[in-house]
Design goal:
The structure is a single chain. This protein is an alpha+beta fold. The chain has helices at about 105-110, 200, 235-240, 250-255, 280-285, 320-335, 375-380, 400-410, 430-435, 470-475, 480-490, 495, and strands at about 10-15, 30-40, 40-50, 65-70, 75-80, 95-100, 110-115, 125-135, 140-150, 160-170, 175-180, 195, 210-215, 225-230, 245-250, 265-275, 290-295, 340-345, 350, 355-360, 360, 370-375, 385-395, 415-420, 455-460. The chain folds into three domains: about 10-135, C2 domain (Immunoglobulin-like, Sandwich); about 140-275, Immunoglobulin-like, CATH 2.60.40.150; about 280-495, 3-Layer(aba) Sandwich (Rossmann fold), CATH 3.40.50. Strands 17, 18, 21, 22, 23, 24 and 25 form a seven-stranded mixed β-sheet that branches. Helix 6 (about 320-335) crosses helix 10. The longest helix is centred in the middle third of the chain and has 13 residues, at about 320-335. One of its GO terms (cellular component) is nucleus.
Length: about 500
């Protein structure tokens, strides 16, 4: 992979038909996870779709964006699960089937439909999965603010629970591009601002038709269509520059039956702004660097370092889980730091001369200069400049969850990401909660994180083959987190914006 040249980025859209029904009294609540492998037997998670409730034929709105290398066989494994809990660990959920293929097969087909198989290679009932591939050649993103008024009431008790779906026109029909959140019990909803890549919405053609559908959400999956309309991204833009762009939300069946029918409500696009969105590589190649800091758990639960049972015991081969985890991640990140000086801290140890427990001490015992030269110098770190990466390696669960949640929510507004690697055999469900894959983390007071900045991985999942596979899984979300932070604040790559205007400055 080191010598490979990325040919392009590819967007993968997933849908399924006739999934197994694993729920009693309702339907399965499917989610699709994508695993990738470029090395035999070593898989890493590349992403997950949203969960679609009570649906055996889901169309997932969340896309997978992957780098395509022509000269490398990139194996893909799409796994579909019925999600029944809030944990990140999918082993607790019902398996609905999987498809293994290569990215080359998907790209060459453009639209690949295959039966879903169980782990025994038996068919997963009549279940099928369809993968659609499209090259991403447009890095513009449309930012929306949308509300509605006087929507039809589809509920007998209470009011409609509306949400919107945006569709792109393709040769094979309408393809789901985005789904908003549900606004409960409201006929005049205002949805949270959202973004849709221009490529996903109209293939880069601002005059291409877009279809918008408004639904009333029902828990049993039988969502009622309130109405729909068609337009173009250019009309969205032009109309919303001076005043909200308003569209009649029309239900064709109701229009046929009811004389004098006008609409089933009005959709008002308050803002539609198309912006260029820079990628992780744009920022890195433009001069941005990564700061890498490691924090190592020295609490008593690790055991006596002199004992072979201790997680800090250094084996005759000179390694343990802490060192392996640090090296695996740091070996990748160190290439993005110019001075190769990495601050390394420990927590939970009794420090001389007072032998009081310290929850932050430099591993080189030099508080004025906690930096270690290179990975061999500390075997615990990696990078330095404008985006910060904190690697926490720990054997235990969190005892001060409220304070931790508050700290992470506040940190989501800073240029930083947090990687947590759990070593040993502890129950890490509390750590999984901090990983925002199931929704934005909230503080004790209910404040929502601005973005997902935590990635948690248990080391035991990679014990047989650590190194590249562990690093790929741990760092899979980092490029998007870096790009999304700078994008949120409208910051351009340093070389494009000028050295002074391209950065935000934070105290360490």
């Amino acid at each position: 992979m080191a010598a490979a040249q990325c040919v392009t980025k590819v967007e993968l859209t997933v849908s399924c038909e006739n999934l197994l029904d694993k729920d009693v009294g309702s339907k399965s609540d499917p989610l699709c996870v994508l695993l990738m492998s470029c090395t035999e037997g070593r898989w890493y998670e590349a992403g997950r779709t949203e969960q679609v409730q009570n649906c055996l034929c889901p169309k997932f709105a969340k896309k997978f964006v992957v780098d395509y290398y022509f000269e490398i066989v990139q194996k893909l494994r799409f796994g579909v699960y019925d999600i029944d809990n809030k944990t990140v660990d999918l082993s607790d959920d019902d398996f609905l089937g999987q498809l293994e293929c290569t990215l080359g097969q998907v790209v060459s087909s453009r639209r690949l439909t295959r039966p879903l198989l169980l782990t025994s290679s038996a068919p997963a009932g009549r279940g099928t999965i369809t993968i659609m591939a499209e090259e991403i050649s447009d890095n513009r993103v449309a930012h929306f603010e949308v509300e509605a008024r006087k929507l039809d009431n589809k509920d007998f008790f209470g009011k409609s629970d509306p949400y919107l779906e945006f569709y792109k026109q393709t040769d094979s029909g309408w393809q789901l591009a985005h789904r908003t959140e549900v606004v409960n019990n409201n006929l005049n909803p205002t949805w949270k601002s959202f973004r849709i890549p221009v490529q996903s919405l109209c293939g880069g053609d601002l005059e291409k038709p877009i279809k918008v559908e408004c639904y009333d959400y029902d828990n049993d999956g039988s969502h009622d269509l309130i109405g729909s309309f068609q337009t173009t991204l250019k009309r969205f833009q032009d109309a919303s520059r001076t005043s909200p762009a308003e569209f009649d939300c029309v239900n064709s069946k109701k229009k046929q039956k009811k004389k004098g029918y006008k609409n089933s409500g009005v959709i008002s696009v308050k803002m539609c702004e198309v912006k260029k969105e820079y990628t992780f590589l744009d920022y890195i190649m433009g001069g941005c660097q990564l700061n890498f800091t490691v924090a190592v758990d020295f609490t008593a639960s690790n055991g006596d370092p002199r004992s072979p049972d201790s997680l800090h015991y250094i084996s005759p081969q000179g390694v343990n889980e802490y060192l392996t985890a640090t090296w695996s991640v740091g070996n990748v990140i160190q290439d993005y730091d110019s001075d190769k000086m990495f601050p390394a801290f420990g927590f939970g140890a009794q420090i001389p001369p007072s032998w009081q427990v310290s929850h932050q001490f430099p591993l080189n015992f030099n508080p004025s200069n906690p930096f270690c030269p290179g990975l061999p110098g500390a075997l615990q770190q990696s990078t330095a400049s404008q985006y910060f990466v904190l690697l926490i390696i720990t054997d235990g669960v969190i005892t001060d969850m409220d304070q931790t949640r508050n700290a992470i929510v506040q940190a989501s507004r800073l240029p930083m990401s947090i990687i947590i690697i759990g070593v040993g055999g502890a129950d890490f469900s509390a750590m999984e909660f901090l990983d925002g894959d199931d929704g934005r983390l909230r503080s004790q007071t209910g404040e929502s994180a601005l973005r997902d900045i935590v990635q948690f991985v248990p080391f035991r999942d990679f014990k047989k083959a650590p190194g590249p596979a562990l690093a790929q899984s741990v760092l899979a979300e980092l490029p998007q987190q870096v790009a999304s932070f700078f994008g949120l604040f409208g910051l351009k790559p340093p070389e494009e914006a000028g050295a002074s205007s391209g950065f935000l400055h934070y105290s360490h």
